[in-house]
Known about the structure:
This protein is of the alpha+beta class.
Amino acid sequence: MGEKAQSLDRLLQIVLEKGTVLLGRAAIVLVVFTVAWLAAGWVQRAIVSAFGRITHVDATLVRFLASAARYGLLIASLVSCLSAFGINATSFAAVLGAVGIAIGLAFQGTLSNFAAGLMLLLFRPFRVGDTIKAGAYSGTVSALELFSTVLVTSDNRRVVLPNSALSNQPLENITYYPTRRAEVLLPFPLRADVARLLPQLIERARALPHVHEDPAPDARIQDFRDRSVNVVLGAWCDAKHHPSLMAALALLGKQVLDEARARQRLTPKSPRGDAAVE
Length: 278
């Protein structure tokens, strides 16, 4: 019994010694990784702030490099922390090489997002500040990061899209070109004198704010329906003024339509009983 008690005491002593060492190392690793996490965030913000003062540097590239620096620092700190438990960088690399296939399968989505981010950065279908539409989401690009792209919608919502989703589906860059055409469809009555209304629509569209003189506004008949003549009214403007010009053209069309209907009500009826519409 005495020998068993001594063996148990030695075992407990060894467990306490090893446990104390491991807990101490774990505490050090936790502190080091916390400091590295804070430092990585500071480095990311510092890169964005430093390059943000240089006007000729692309903001998309700056944010991507800042994100890469942040994750690189975190990975380096993680490898350093593993050495505290007796796992050196060489052994760690060998282990990663041995189980590379398993890791590749486990992180297939993450790796595809990273590769897609590199392709987006290389081919530049959009830049930070552009307004894009991808699937059901649209908004202004706030940041292109290693694994995702951040959008800010028109109603100030933050949308985070995986980079692979942007590279594997049709993507529309709404503000790629500096100018856009605003176009609305206006249904006029069949009896309306559309030949007289078209020049009126064009002339009044010229007077709207933000409308370009070249190309000039235009109006044309698109088709005829059972009870209406569909007229397309269009004008060109700067891309940033497109939403407001769309609303202005729709309001202009309604005003012209209301005036035509008012003239129709005031015009005396023809001998057949139909009102003569100008």
